Amino acid sequence: MFEIDLTLNEPFRLESGEVLDEVKLRATVYGRLNEDKSNAVLVFHALTGSSRIGDWWNGLMCNGCALDTSENAFICVNYLGSSYGSTSASALKKRRQKGGKAELPIITTRDIVRTNVLLLEHLGVKKLKSVIGGSVGGMLSLQLAVDFPELAEHCVSIAATPLSAMGLALNHLQRQAIRRNDLELARKIAVVSYKSPRKFGERFGRNPNRNGEDPKRRRDDRFDVGGYLDHQGDLFRNRFEIESYDLITKAMDLFDLTDADISRVRARVSFVGISSDWLFPAADVRALRDRFVRRGVEARYHEIESEDGHDAFLSDLAATSRVLRHVLGEPDEEMTVASYVAHRRGLGQLRGCYKVL
Question: How many C-beta atoms lie closer than 10 Å to residue 98's C-beta?
Fold first, then answer.
């Protein structure tokens, strides 16, 4: 593993038209690029992740793992506007305040993807074996496939679609909490959306908080699930910048795919849903796959069978590993329009630890 810090020498124009005079990027590379740089895999991290894949996908990436560092070089770039080494949202805000602007700039998924491509150019990578990401990282994987159709051979998008009205509502509430300087509350709202009802029921039920509080006796005493959420908020307070949370959730809101966008895709696309995800429901991921197929894109759907909810791609490593090993193994048989119709009639379905449709 080694880290790269890159400062872009030229002004960077955002999709909004605003020009940033300087952009710093931090990237981490796991494994070794071969001589012709043909073994590069780009990984996009999730909302509050960093370029250090091993910190949040520990157990999935190693020699012989699903993300096999003996064969591939895995590159991850901390997002423009995030908190871990690249130009952060707070830094962008300070620059704007000097120019008399109080608000954060609007950073889009297109902007973030373009900074990643500039980092790849710096490394001399002209073609990617795969691009992989989960949640907002999955959005970014799809955005790259749209905006740079010749760059990646294979796009893997896990638990990601354009946000539904429910997803937009939850992000709105989180940013409302941030406006009141309550990053902890924003995080608690997010954590609720990342877990499945069954997971919460199994783990917490209606038990009183494990520290001995008794909600039947004192008004402010909590149930166990309340204690858990408060703990998650406390942990987050010093881990992530409040401005970065604001900026990236806005980028998630703005991500969308028109039919014209989808028609630009040349990569083979693997969509991965999560059976218990209610933030990005598996049905919505399948429906997005269907749109890609109808536009002539070679696309397949796979499903992680887990009760962990949206978080499963990070927390249920065994299930995620099984799916990624399959997805990144032999190329799937091309999903032609004819085979798509056959699938819709109930053919071509495999069941077991995961589904591939």
Answer: 7
Single out the catalytic residue among 277, 308, 311, 316. 277
Active site residue 306: no
Q: What b/e string do you get for 51-68 counting C-beta neighbours within 10 Å, with b at 16 or more?
A: bbbbeebeebbeeebbbb
Write the CA distances from 115 to 45, 136, 185, 245, integer angstroms.
14, 16, 31, 19
Which of 45, 154, 302, 310 is flagged as catalytic? 310
Beta sheet of 268-274, edge-to-edge order: 2-7, 24-30, 73-77, 40-44, 130-134, 154-158, 268-274, 299-304, 354-356
316 is catalytic: no
Any residues with CB less than 8 A from the CB of 166 and at least 6 apart, and which? 279
- Taking the domains of the chain in order of start, what are their residue ranges? 2-163+258-356, 166-249
Residue 159's region, left for phi above 0, alpha for psi from -120 to 50, else beta, is left
Q: Is 310 a catalytic residue?
A: yes
C-alpha distances in Å from residue 72, one per residue of 62, 65, 161? 10, 11, 27
Q: What are the tens digits of pLDDT across the range 139-162?
A: 999 999 999 999 999 999 999 999
Give mean pLDDT, residues 317-342: 67
**pLDDT at residue 98 in the model:** 80
The residue annotated as part of the active site, out of 82, 135, 157, 196, is 135
User: Does the predicted TM-score (pTM) go above 0.85?
Assistant: yes
Predicted confidence (pLDDT) per residue in 89-107, tens digit:
999 999 888 877 778 999 9
Is residue 340 predicted with pLDDT exceeding 80? Answer: no
Q: Which architecture characterizes domain 166-249 according to CATH?
A: Orthogonal Bundle (1.10)
Question: Under CATH, what is the fold of the domain 2-163+258-356?
Answer: Rossmann fold (3.40.50)
The Cα 153–Cα 131 span in angstroms is 8
